[in-house]
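User: Some background: our group keeps a shared notebook of sequences we're curious about, and every so often someone picks one and asks for a predicted structure to add to the entry. Today it's my turn. The entry only has the sequence so far, pasted here. Could you supply the structure so I can complete it?
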Amino acid sequence: MPKFEIDFRPRLVDFPLKLRLFKECTPRILVVVDGLNFNATSGSGLSQFVSTLESSLIHGMTPQVIKANRLPDTNADIDEFTFDHASNGVLKSRYDVVFLFGIAGQTAGLSPSEIAAVAQFMQAGGGVFATGDHEDLGAGMSKDVPRVREMRYWLSTETPDFGDVSRLSTNLAGDNGQFEFADQSDTHPQRLFVNYRTDSGGVGDPHPLLQAGPLGVVDVMPDHPHEGECHIPADLTTTFTLNGSTLDEWPNATSGGGRVSPEMVGLTVSHGDSFPGKAALEPRAFMSIVAYDGHRAGVGRVSTDATWHHFVNINIDGTGSSRNGLQDPPGTDTPEMERIRVYYQNIAAWLMPKNVRFCLRYPWIIRELTVFPLFEEIRIPRLDDADAEQLRDLGQRLVSALQLKVPRWSADSLIADALEDAVGEERAAELMELDESFGRLSGREVGLAALGGTLIGVATVLGELDTDQDSLDVEKLFGPVVKKAAAVAVGKFQDRCLNDLRKAQGRLEALI
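Assistant: Of course. Here's the predicted structure to add to the notebook entry:
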């Protein structure tokens, strides 16, 4: 091995065992119900959804999923749960993402101290997902939670009915061509119309929640004959009170540009003929998924969904019906269900707090170095010997390898984080707005160079890692080295690009 390369491979032989060192980075997900359950034999169970999360890699690490029920429940990890409980309630130090799957209506709201606990969690950067169903199903947990309350209709005075002409049906007729209730449990999912112009996804890409990596785009959802409805608040100047202070519900972006607004991620269409208990409908579009990128404003991200029927067993595997859901043959996901499971994973990953995402990138990058193609093909130079092209190409090699497995947004998050390490949050946001019109000095190109520096920094620390320890202070160990490497990489790339631009300008002036 040339002396200017970092010999990282011997340190990776038993990396699966070394994952214990990164236990402080393990994603912690809390799933809360108040009428649904976690029973695999129940149509209203979330066992399929939970098993998807438990078998997923969230930014490279398997999450811990804690199941909580506000009611007595032997299948839950915590039953009779309250959000303000001293030993297991919602704290940012205890959980990273909270899922709210509510049935209880608007008369069963949270106590003021429970609302405050969730609000404090969100202010500290915790991610929240919330959904219900038609009428006021789900209002008990969600109608008073800041931001969540304005990203979906929760009250019976606002929401569609389950049977009259206001109902929102996405059910496609089954194989017999007739509209039936059981069509929600067949192999024909609804069409989801993806918004390709979101701030978080950019123009031309879906929002991160609907990017499916090698599987393409999540453009389907389980269907149901009476869904709820998401929406975007018209007034972004609303406030809420927390611990005696009045706070903006929709604060300004930390890098400027005004208040950050929720955005529509996907639309669907209500349609269909009548069947017993359901009125025939005039088609109309409605918002199925809405998301709020709170990281841009220094708070937690939020996502809402029109109905928990996009997640429960009866719509996934047909439990409780006479059909097999989106598993055909039984136990085998259809291609559509495979994409829907990516949506579940994306929710947990996208909502993950920023500090946890920063922590997770170290074991994630190391894990990627243990497998094809990087384990066999990549050569990592020492930082002092690396030139601008090598740094940029290192970043691109890492991103290209990851995109073979994960949605583009997930791999690209490493670019943005590396750039923020190098130049700070505000300058990184401004740089990422630069496009190809600035030549090689585009935001993405600079970010790739920073990521190349990050990769060198991680490999440098890995080469000196004491694997006899039980755990690590990950940020203390990796953070200073990685941030310095990213900053040096950006400096080298910037000097190279500016020099190229000066030469090009000189040639142009000479010709003119």
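Suggested note for the entry: The chain is about 30% helix and 10% strand. The longest helix spans residues 474-511.
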